[in-house]
Amino acid sequence: MFKQLSLDCNNLINLTVDNQKIQVAKGTTVAAAALTHGLSYTRTTPISGAKRAPFCMMGVCFECLMVIDGKPNQRACGTYVEEGMLVEIQQGAMAYPREGS
Q1: Cβ(29)–Cβ(38) under 8 Å?
Q2: Is the pLDDT of residue 28 over 80?
Q3: What's the number of CA atoms in the CB half-sphere (13 Å) around residue 75?
Q4: What does residue 5 show for φ and ψ, rounded to 5 degrees?
């Protein structure tokens, strides 16, 4: 459904999305990177475990929440990729780890 347009090989970012190493163009959002590389969902719901994926792509619906660099509840549609970033599917409602834990 989503397709990445031609890449500028001099402007690529390396990151890991759901244990898959990928390359995307600088300036790409995490949600766009996940969708263009075949990820069918970005989070599951806390009650039923239903799969959810980015919908509005502008930060309003919160369906794109993912764990980014170990921080849960990050809006993937409003976060731009960075070199070495680690992105994971968010399973249900997640809380930040408490300090000192």
Answers
A1: no
A2: yes
A3: 10
A4: -70, 175
